[in-house]
Amino acid sequence: MDERLFLQSLARGLQVLEAFEGVAQPLSLGGLAAATGLDKSATQRIAHTLLALGYLERDPGGQGLVPGKRLLDRAFDMLRLNPLVQRATPVLQELRRTVQERVDLSLPDDTQIIYAVRLQSRRDTLSATLVGRRMPAFATSGGRAMLAAMPEAEAEDILARSDRRPLTPATITDLPGLRGKLAEARRDGFSMALEESLRDEVVLAAAVLDAQGRPVGAVHVAGSLAEWDAQRFRRRIGPLAMQAARALGGFA
Asked: According to the model, what pLDDT value does residue 127 have?
C-alpha cells in the first residue's frame, strides 16, 4: 500500500462504523469514542456526518446511535457485483430444494469467513440467517475446506494468526487437531464440523476453486443432530456439496 495515498479522515469514519461490530446495543458518542480511540470532538464530527448521509441513525428508543439503512445499499452493491454470488444463487437454491436444510455460501477474508448467501431451513436462529456474519475460519467447515485447498504454508500461517478461542465446548482449537481436520478435508474433498460453532448442529462444506485452483468461497449445508447422525449426513450431503462447489468453480 502506498501510504501517500492513504486518507486518514476516511479511515476514521470507517472506524466509527466498525465500532458496532459485535455490540448488543446502540452506542453513545462516548461509547463510539471509547471503541475507536478517537477524541470526542472528532467522534462527534464524524458521527454527525454519517448521520447526515444516512450511514448512522438515532436509536428509536433514544439510547444512542445505530448503523443506518444506507449501509444495506452498499452491501447490496457488493453482492450484486460479486461474480461468485451471481453464479451461486441458482445453484444454491437447487441444492436447498434437494437437501431441505440450510445452505450457505461463504467468502474467505484472511483468518475469517463471511457469509454472502444464506438460504434458510425451518429452524434457523436469526444469526444463522443474516448475510455479512463473520466467523473464524479455523472453527467452521467452510473455512477449513478453503484452508485445505490452500498451499500448506499459507494455511499454517492463517492458523497461527487466528484467535483460536472456542465458540462451543466442541470447538477444535489446538494446531495438531486442526491440521488433522485439514488433512481429512484434503482426503475427502469436503470438511465437517460437529457442534463447533453452534450446539446440536452438523455442517459440511466444500471449497469453490477458481481457474487457478485457489479457494474463493465455500458451499455449506447445515443440519440438526436431532435429525441426522454424522455418518448419514456425510454420506448424503458430501457428494451434493462437492457437486455444487464444482458447478460454481473454474472462473477467472
From this structure: 65
SS3 state of residue 85: helix
pLDDT of residue 109: 96
User: Is residue 181 within 8 Å of residue 159, measured between CB atoms?
Assistant: no
What pLDDT sits at residue 3? Answer: 84
Helix axes 40-53, 8-18, angle to 10 degrees: 80
Distance, in Å, from the CA atom of 101 to the CA atom of 152, rounded to the nearest integer, reads 32
Under-50 pLDDT residues of the chain: none
Global pTM reads 0.87
Ranges assigned E (strand) in 84-190: 102-109, 112-119, 134-136
Which pLDDT belongs to residue 2?
80
Return the C-alpha cell found at 84. 461468485
Helix (H) or strand (E) holding 5: none
| Residue listed under C-alpha cell 460479486 | 82
Name every residue whose Cβ is closer than 8 Å to that of residue 216 and which is 6 or more positions away in sequence. 84, 107, 108, 208, 209, 210, 249
What ranges make up the beta strands (E) of the chain? 56-58, 65-67, 102-109, 112-119, 134-136, 191-194, 201-209, 215-224
223 HSE (CA, 13 A, CB side): 21
What does the pLDDT read at residue 120? 85
In Å, what is the CA distance from 86 to each residue of 81, 134, 157, 178? 8, 20, 31, 32
